[in-house]
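Good morning C.,

I know you're traveling, so I'll keep this short. The sequence:
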Amino acid sequence: TGYAKDTAYRIARQAWRRHFSVSVQSMDQVDKWSIFTATYPVIFVCSTTGQGEEPDNMKKLWRFILRKTIPHDALSGLQYAVFGLGDSSYQKFNFPAKRLFRRLQQLGGTPIVDRGDGDDQHYLGLDGALDPWLENLWTVLLDRYPLQKPIVPESVAPDPSCDIDYIDECIGASVDETELIPGTHLARLVKSDRMTAPDHFQDVHLFEFELDDSTQVPRWSPGDCAVLRPENLDSDVNDFLQQMRWAEHADRLLQIKPHDESIIPEWVPRRTTLRWLFTYYFDIMAVPRRSFFEMLYFFSSSENEKERLHEFTTSEGQDELQTYCMRPRRTIVEVLDDLPCSRVPLEYIFDVFPEIADRSFSISSASAVTPHRVDLTVAIVNYKTLMQKPRVGVCTKWLLNMELDRTVGLRFAKGTMKLPAGPTPIIMVGPGTGIAAFMSFIGDRVSRNISANYLFFGCRNEHGDFLHQEQLQKWVSCNELQLFCAFSRDQENTVYVQQRIREQGDLLWSLISEQDAVVYVSGNANRMPDDVRQAFTDVAADHGVDDAAAYVQAMVKTGRYQEECWY
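The tokens, ready to paste straight into the viewer:
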């Protein structure tokens, strides 16, 4: 989501004001040996992915410091602090930060302050824990490293991270070619079909991509994800450039010279145009975070706007920021419409505007069946808030507007759910788009003549949003799948998947207790995962297990009960 990067740069700006020399790096960019010889404080900011897993750009460092051959006092000279970003509604809340903090301590490191646990469920979001943690951090650090001169006032803007200049066209300069992000494969959109009924409130689309034969076709595993980097639509970019008074210079060549090369990814060309940057790199449709307002404050020519912006940057003003921006999901474009006297200087664009974040979607097809085709089952983000215009997702809007035969870059990422190697029975619970990964599960197992597949699918109406109905019923007719559906609104009393689970308690207990079946749960993380786990707990209790909750928890620990849920 970019929250860890945003938090790290916020800490760096505060450190700069206190006259520390600061370097911000992705954990996997860090020279891992430098941690063992560091004579300066090191601050780690960790997000959480999947079901309590460390993010991809932390994995290399994490694997390295887990080595058993590292002496127990190897980090005795390290002063460190760890702040985690997570959501307490998940069972493994901030597990990467907790594990990192503990491991650094095991290797002899000295914590500067207690670990900080940012919680998305806090009424002020992650800042609810970050603000007091930072206050404590600077108190301790300034006690150890007394200032020789005053703290730089909050009214002084930090230096820009890049030098950006227009290139005189007469010198014959041209735009640098855009490099593909490592691991990217070219894929062509060959199908874009709505799966739900036209009158159904939720638009769920099936997007099919054909992989380019000219490159080595990857073999992805069932449960893996396809990663896409969306683009802003031309119409949105044009409106934004006009709003920022950059339209007449949108296609002029720019030379970008970052003061630190780690600030800008390698794939971003150093000679390019504003139009390219705001189409492919900057997320102008994002809901701005606190740091956006902190930076925008420096560039406002209106005292009224400056006062409002300053309020949004204070701890006391966070409730007001939530009301103005976060709850109605007000976008950067809309904020700048509200603040016509606040405009960002060209040289500060990399310090103010967030990067477009990658989007991951569970793959609905099995590489064993269609090795050149990647299917995605995608719920289109479109909802209303207090704002006049509906809120739409950057990625799903981009996909919906994409013409057939358009070629895009696509990468693969490991999912969090893993299939058993052999013919072990699997029990899948996937309401709504939670079914996406299970389509690849079933397709892969059917291709290996494994028929012990049990799916509990839930939706509102059989004729409204029964996703992948035709393929599922085909597998059922061939005795390759047992399917149990809960159509919640097709009868007077609502019926959910957890009720179907209890109804099939004898069958499920036989599979779990006698055949070591593995349970998978995928879908919306609001109430469904807890309700489904309780249903399996009830099944165990009904069949004589004294501590049924502990039994299910033991299944979780051994990988026989796996969840992949999201908000």
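Safe travels,
E.
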